[in-house]
Amino acid sequence: MLNVGLFDDFKGAKTLLLWGDAEGMAAFAAGLSALRNQPGRDLLLDEGTIRLSVCSVAAPAHWSNLTRETEGFRWECSGSTLQHAEDVVRPLIHGAGHQYLEVTGEAQQVFIPRDEYPPDLR
After folding, report:
1. Residue 80 domain-assigned?
2. What's the pTM value of the predicted model, to 2 decimals?
């Protein structure tokens, strides 16, 4: 399972946290790959404290932005950001650890840990 939360002060910054186990990381990596290969789709993540829609947009390299929507948040990413995210998530399928990604908008960072936090983290 992959959980999603937005924390005002997590590791010193406003953070979009995507945490879970090996199965969650595998599903997330597959979803990121599908977004890169089929633009126009959204990856919906709704386990945890918020609902997050991840989508691919035409944008400069390494760009990503988190915005608030009526029923959650939208994380818009360039193709290169999606590729980078997939590249840092794949090793988490095979072992515990964590990765950071940059984002603008409603958060300052994206933190992706595997097996470091309980599913009910609030």
Report:
1. no
2. 0.91
What range defines the domain where residue 39 resides? 1-43+88-122
Cβ count within 10 A of residue 114 = 24
Helix (H) or strand (E) holding 85: helix 79-94
56 lies in a domain?
Answer: no
Domains of the chain: total:
1
Tens of pLDDT, residues 69-109 = 998 999 999 999 999 999 999 999 999 999 999 999 999 99
What number of other Cβ atoms are within 10 A of residue 28's Cβ? Answer: 24
Structural tokens at position 48 = 């945890």
Handedness of CA 58, 43, 94, 20 (dihedral sign): positive
Residue in this structure with the two tokens 């818009």, named with its chain if needed: 76
Is 81 inside a domain boundary?
A: no
